[in-house]
Design goal:
The complex is a heterodimer of chains A (about 260) and B (about 400). Chain A has about 260 residues and is an alpha/beta fold. Chain A contains 10 helices and 10 strands. The radius of gyration of chain A is 19 Å and the shape is globular. The N terminus of chain B is likely disordered. In chain B, a hairpin with a 3-residue loop joins strand 2 and strand 3. At the A-B interface, helix 3, helix 4 and helix 6 of A face helix 1, helix 2, helix 3 and helix 12 of B.
Chain lengths: ~260, ~400
C-alpha cells in the first residue's frame, strides 16, 4: 500500500487539476472514498462529474495532482497498475456495449480476456447469472445491443461491469432513462451488491431518490472542487446556494419526503 | 492429483481417501467425503480470480457422478466466496438432488456464515445459463445464404433505384423552388470533395500520363514510331484515364466520406431530428452532395486530363526526344476535340453515381457502428462498380455513334 494512503480509503484524489484549453474544470480537487460505501457524486451540468470519473479510472490524465485507487497510484503512475482492471467495473452513461457482439458475448468478454482458461459452459453460466442479477432473463443473451431498449442496455452494461466481481464499481448515471420501477430495482440491486459483495460504489447521479436511498455519502461538485463530501443529512444542512437550491427545490423535497416515509414504514 | 501452475495458482482436487484430506496452501479447492452420502468440503478462496475456472471441470465431473443423491456442501474452511463461486456451488447442489427451492436456498449447505448465505441465496435465485446461438451445419445453409444474398441484391437494386428517383424528384423540385437549394452546403462539399482533392488527382494524372508515354514509346520504338506516343497519351488520357481514374479516386475519397458522415448522423438520431423539424434530409444532406459532385467531378477530370498531357509531354521531352513544341503541334494537329468531349461528357454521370450511392448507404445505416463500417465498404465497392459499368456503357454508346 502506498505510504500516504490510509487503508480504508479505496480512492484518494489530491489536488487534481483538469483543464480543457483555457477552460478549467477541476482545480485543486480532493476526494476520498472509503471501502464498502456508496458515494453519490452530484453537481450541475458541466461541473465535470464524468471527467472526474474518467480521471479516477485512469482514462484521462489530469494536468496536476495525484490519484490513488486501491492503494495503487495511477497518476503520476508509480505502481504496477496492470492488475487494476480486474478490480474496477465501469458502467458508462450509454452502456458502451460492444456493438459487434451479442449481449452474452459482451458480458463474457471481460471473463474471457482475464481468464483465458475459462470453459464455455462456465462463462455462459456466469454471464447468465450476472444478467439475471441485473434483472434480465437469459433470452436476451442472443440479442445484439442495437436491439435493446435504453434501460436494458444499461442493465447489460451493469452485468458486464460486474462480470469479474470488481472491488470498485463506477456508475455514470445508472438510473437515468429508466422508468421509476426499473430505477427502484436498480437501487435495490446496487445496495445488495454493496451489502453482499462488499463493493465500493462510485455513483454519478441526478436521481434524488437514488441519492436518498442508496448513498452513504454525497460529494457535491461545484466551483471546480468537491465542496462537500459527507452523509446526506450534513450536505442538506450546508448553506451553499447551489446545494440549497438542489435539495430545497420541489424535487429534492419530494425525494426527502419519500425517504422519510420509507423509514417510517 | 491434477495441478496447474500456469498463472502461479494451484488447486488440488482429490477424493478423500481413508478420511484424510489433501492439504495445499492454495486457492479454490475441495475434497469429497463419499462415505454414506456424498459430502463436498469446500476450502480456500472460491472466487473467479483464484482458480474457480480451473476447478470447474472437476466440480462438473463430480456432479455428474453424484446425480440425484442428496449432497451436503460444507463451507467450514472456505476463505472467500464471490458470486461466481456461489453460482458454482449452487449449481452443483441443484444438480445433485438437493433441489433447493427459492424459499430454502440453503438446504444442503453446512457451516455457512451470514455473508455467504446472502450470496448463495442470490445465486440460487439467479441461476441461469445464457444461450449462445447454435450454429446449424448443413448444405442447406449454403443454399440459404445464396438465396438470401440474391434476394438482398435484388432488393438493394430496387432500393437504390427508388432512392435515385427520390433524389431526382427533389432536384426537379429545386428548379421550381430555388429557395430549397442550400448553396452554402453545395459549396462546402465542392470544396471538400473537389478542391481538396486537387493535389492528389493532379499528381496521379501526371504520373499516369508519364507512364503511358513511357510504356507506349518503348513498344512503338520497335516500329520506329516513337512519335506516336503523343497520340497515345492524348487519346488515352483525354478519353479514358483522366476521367476514370479521377472518378475512382473520388469514389474512394468522397463516396466513403458521404456514407460515414450521413451514417453517423443517422446513428445519433440527427436525421430523425431533422425530419421531426420538417427538414427533408434529402434536401439538406443528399441533394447538395449530389450537385457538388456532379459539378466538381468534371472540373477535376478536366484538371486531370491537362496534368496527364503535361506528364506525357514531360516524359517526351526528357527521355523520348519529343520536344514540347512538337508534342503541342502533334496534339493540336491529330487529336480531335471529340476525345476531350467524350471524356468530359462522362464525368457528371460518374459524379452522380458516386454521390447517390454514397448517400444511399449512409441513409441505410441502422443502429450500430459495425453496420456503418460495412455500409462504407459496400458504398465504395458499389460506386466503383457503377463507375466502371457506366464507362463501359458509354464506350459502346460512343462506338455506335462513331464519335
Amino acid at each position: 500500500m502506498h505510504g500516504s494512503s490510509s487503508p480504508e480509503n479505496v480512492i484518494e484524489v489530491r489536488g487534481v487539476l483538469n483543464q480543457f484549453g483555457h477552460h478549467v474544470v477541476h482545480d485543486n480537487l480532493d476526494l476520498d472514498v472509503h471501502r464498502g460505501e456508496i458515494i453519490g457524486v452530484v453537481g450541475g451540468s458541466g461541473t465535470g462529474k464524468s471527467v472526474l470519473m474518467r480521471t479516477i479510472v485512469g482514462l484521462r490524465k489530469p494536468q496536476a495532482g495525484t490519484v490513488t485507487i486501491l492503494g495503487k497510484q495511477i497518476f503520476p503512475r508509480e505502481h504496477d497498475t496492470s492488475g487494476l482492471n480486474d478490480d474496477i467495473g465501469i458502467l458508462f452513461q450509454d452502456g458502451a456495449l460492444f456493438s459487434s457482439m451479442t449481449v452474452a458475448e459482451n458480458v463474457m468478454a471481460p471473463l474471457r480476456e482475464h481468464h483465458h482458461e475459462i470453459s464455455d459452459a462456465l462463462a455462459e453460466e456466469i454471464a447468465g447469472m450476472k444478467l439475471s442479477l441485473a434483472g434480465l432473463d437469459e433470452s436476451v443473451g442472443t440479442k445484439m445491443p442495437a436491439d435493446l431498449s435504453g434501460g436494458m442496455r444499461k442493465r447489460v452494461a451493469l452485468a458486464r461491469a460486474m462480470a469479474l466481481d470488481p472491488q470498485v464499481l463506477f456508475l455514470d448515471e445508472p438510473t437515468a432513462g429508466l422508468d421509476p420501477i426499473g430505477a427502484a430495482k436498480f437501487d435495490e440491486l446496487i445496495i445488495s451488491l454493496r451489502d453482499n459483495l462488499g463493493l465500493t460504489i462510485f455513483m454519478i447521479t441526478h436521481d434524488l431518490d437514488s441519492l436518498y436511498r442508496d448513498c452513504d455519502r454525497v460529494a457535491v461538485l461545484a466551483d471546480k472542487k468537491v465542496i462537500v463530501n459527507a452523509p446526506l443529512e450534513d450536505v442538506e444542512r450546508s448553506n451553499h446556494p447551489w446545494i440549497s437550491d438542489y435539495f430545497g427545490g420541489p424535487r429534492g423535497r419530494a425525494a426527502q419526503g419519500a425517504s422519510l416515509a420509507r423509514e417510517n414504514a | 492429483m491434477r495441478c496447474s501452475r500456469l498463472y502461479g495458482r494451484v488447486f488440488a482436487f482429490r477424493p478423500k481417501v481413508n478420511g484424510k484430506a489433501f492439504k495445499q496452501m492454495t486457492n479454490a479447492r475441495f475434497t469429497i467425503d463419499d462415505t454414506a452420502s456424498p459430502r463436498l468440503v469446500v476450502e480456500g478462496r472460491w472466487t473467479i480470480s483464484d482458480g474457480i475456472t480451473k476447478i470447474d471441470d472437476a466440480v462438473r465431473k463430480f456432479a455428474a457422478t453424484t446425480l440425484d443423491k442428496p449432497l451436503t456442501i460444507d463451507l467450514q474452511h472456505i476463505e472467500a466466496l464471490d458470486t461466481s463461486g456461489a453460482m458454482v456451488l449452487q449449481r452443483t447442489m441443484q444438480a445433485c438432488g438437493a433441489r433447493t427451492v427459492a424459499t430454502e436456498p440453503l438446504r444442503g449447505f453446512e457451516n455457512v456464515d451470514d455473508r455467504h448465505q446472502v450470496l448463495l441465496a442470490q445465486a440460487a435465485a439467479n441461476l441461469s445459463s445464457c444461450e449462445v446461438h447454435a450454429h446449424p451445419k448443413s448444405i442447406l445453409i449454403v443454399l440459404e445464404r445464396v438465396g438470401k444474398t440474391a434476394e438482398g441484391m435484388l432488393d438493394e437494386a430496387l432500393h437504390i433505384l427508388s432512392f435515385v428517383g427520390a433524389v431526382m424528384a427533389r432536384m426537379a423540385d429545386m428548379v421550381r423552388h430555388p429557395r430549397h437549394l442550400r448553396p452554402t452546403s453545395v459549396v462546402h462539399h465542392m470544396e471538400s470533395s473537389g478542391l481538396n482533392a486537387i493535389f492528389i488527382v493532379g499528381l496521379m494524372s501526371f504520373l499516369i500520363g508519364a507512364v503511358v508515354a513511357f510504356m507506349g514509346a518503348t513498344v512503338l520504338a520497335e516500329f520506329g514510331a516513337e512519335v506516336f506516343a503523343v497520340e497515345l497519351v492524348g487519346i488515352s488520357v483525354l478519353r479514358e484515364f483522366g476521367v476514370l481514374l479521377t472518378a475512382i479516386l473520388v469514389a474512394g475519397r468522397s463516396g466513403s466520406a458521404f456514407t460515414a458522415a450521413i451514417g453517423s448522423m443517422k446513428l445519433r438520431e440527427e436525421i430523425d431530428a431533422m425530419q421531426a423539424m420538417g427538414i427533408d434530409p434529402l434536401d439538406a444532406l443528399v441533394v447538395p452532395r449530389v450537385i457538388a459532385l456532379v459539378v466538381a467531378l468534371p472540373c477535376l477530370a478536366f484538371f486531370a486530363a491537362i496534368l496527364g498531357m503535361i506528364g506525357g509531354g514531360a516524359v517526351g521531352a526528357a527521355f523520348l526526344d519529343i520536344p514540347p513544341a512538337l508534342f503541342m503541334a502533334r496534339t493540336q494537329e491529330i487529336i480531335v476535340i471529340s476525345n476531350f468531349v467524350v471524356g468530359m461528357a462522362k464525368a457528371p454521370f460518374f459524379g452522380f453515381a458516386i454521390a447517390v450511392v454514397g448517400c444511399y448507404h449512409g441513409m441505410m445505416v441502422e443502429s450500430s457502428a459495425e453496420d456503418l463500417g460495412r455500409r462504407t465498404t459496400v458504398a465504395v465497392v458499389q460506386s466503383l462498380f457503377l463507375v466502371i459499368l457506366t464507362d463501359a456503357l458509354f464506350a459502346i454508346f460512343f462506338m455506335e455513334l462513331d464519335y
